[in-house]
Every structure is written in structure tokens, then in C-alpha cells.
Amino acid sequence: MTQPRRVLITGGNRGIGRAIAESFVAAGDSVAITSRDGSGPEGATAIACDVTDSASVDAAFDEAEQALGGPVEVLVANAGITDDGLLMRMSDESFAKVIDTNLAGAFRCVRRASKGMIRLRHGRIVLISSIVAVTGGPGQVNYAASKAGLIGMARSITRELGGRGITANVVTPGYIDTDMTRGLPEAQREAFVAATPAGRFAQPEEVAAAVRFLASDDAAYISGAVLPVDGGLGMGH
Ligand code: NDP
Q1: Which of 13, 87, 94, 173 has the fewest CB atoms found within 10 Å of its own CB?
Q2: Residue range 64-76: average pLDDT?
Q3: Which atom in ligand 1 lies closest to the alpha carbon of residue 129?
């Protein structure tokens, strides 16, 4: 793959996805992002897309490929939500909604992206999971299950498509300073920092750096891997 690459990032209007998009733009790549309201960072083509809707995903890829001038070469499946609650009180709707967004949403994007990547005989798929996928988290049965599923997804893609120049890897962030974690109660934020050997939350740009590496030519022989960006929080898993 030579630069500029055609890159699509889901959920690229804020938080981690936005930092990832900005870092690809800064590197000179051709970038499209999706968000539900169609907004996005400067330098990227912003496309409205809801990852829970297959038709919306397929249409967003059509639009992105038109704007970027060819099939997507790098897909970063980043869009995600939480809907925490204790197991005994978690509703079917809450469980289904989180799985539909985080796990099935990534599946819809990967399925669509794979068509172009197979034709090109190269591609980079990076799935944004969470360290909770491997450590578990109280009140996060839905979220942890959705994020753990991404690991099986990346490894199955690797077995199916690894011989066609396509890699699929997973990044597992720890606690990153975004809208998602800013809503946590102060006591919980302090407890997370205390449990993290690095002793701090990370900035979204620190996740973007790991994604950029996995999307690079240098990472051509890395596939099915799980790369933590967690300040040591999940060590040993
Ligand atoms: P934010 O809440 O800041 O951003 C979430 C993004 O996902 C937004 O762009 C949002 O778009 C998009 N999104 C949500 N639902 C949908 C949907 N149905 N269709 C399309 N887009 C959707 O979260 P973060 O930046 O913190 O998180 C990004 C990813 O990183 C998530 O997958 C999250 O699980 C993961 N992560 C985050 C951690 C953290 O500490 N922050 C830790 C570990 C993992 P919209 O503006 O339209 O809502």
C-alpha cells in the first residue's frame, strides 16, 4: 500500500474516532468518516451513517468510495456506545442495542469493506474494542460481550482473508478522555486512574498512533492481534 491511502473511520466526528481521522488526514491520506449527523473534522469527507442499519452502511461506503476515488483500503470500525447496568436489571433492549451497535455494526462495515479489499488484494481492518473485552467490567455485560466479540471477528477475518493481503487487528483502549468517560462519576474516574499503572487517563491521540501503526505497511505481518493501549491496566490478559 502506498500513500495516500483511502481510509474510512466510523464514528469519526468526536472522541477517539475524530483523533484517528485527524491523524490520517495529517499523514496525507484520503479520509472519509461517518457519524450519525454527518458532521466531521476538517480535511475529511463526512458522511451520515447509522451502523445499526445495513442499508445505511452500504450507502455510506458507496458515497465514500465515490468521494475517495476507489475502494476503501483502511477501515477503522470505531463507532460504539455503552449502556451500563447491573446484570439482573439489564433489559433485553439494552443488551441488544449495544451488541447491534458495537459488534453487528462493525460486522456490517467489515462485510462491505471486504469486497473492495479482496479486489485490491490488500486492506487493513482495525476494530476498536476495549480492555473490558478481556478483563470484564461490572455493569458492562452487554458492552464487554460486544467488545470481546470483535476479537473473534478479527481472528476469523484473518483466517478467511489473510492470504489476500488483508490484515484484521483489534485495539483495546483503557480509559481515554472522551465524552464516553467524562460522564463517569468522579469517584469512579479516580478509581480507574488508581488501577492504571500509568496513573492517568490517555488522550485519544494515543489510540490513534496505535491504529496508524496497524494500518501501515510496517504491520503487514501482524494480523489477528490484540493491541492494548491501556497504560498497563489489563496486563496479563
Ligand atoms: P464517544 O462517545 O466520544 O464517540 C462515539 C462515536 O460512535 C461517535 O462518533 C458516535 O457518533 C458513534 N456512534 C455511536 N453509535 C453509532 C451508530 N449507531 N451509528 C454510527 N455511529 C455511531 O466515544 P469514544 O470516542 O470514547 O469511543 C470510541 C470507541 O472507542 C467506541 O467503540 C468505544 O467503545 C471505544 N472505547 C472507548 C474508551 C474510552 O475510554 N473512551 C475505552 C475503550 C474503548 P454520533 O456522534 O453520531 O453519536
Answers
A1: 87
A2: 98
A3: 44
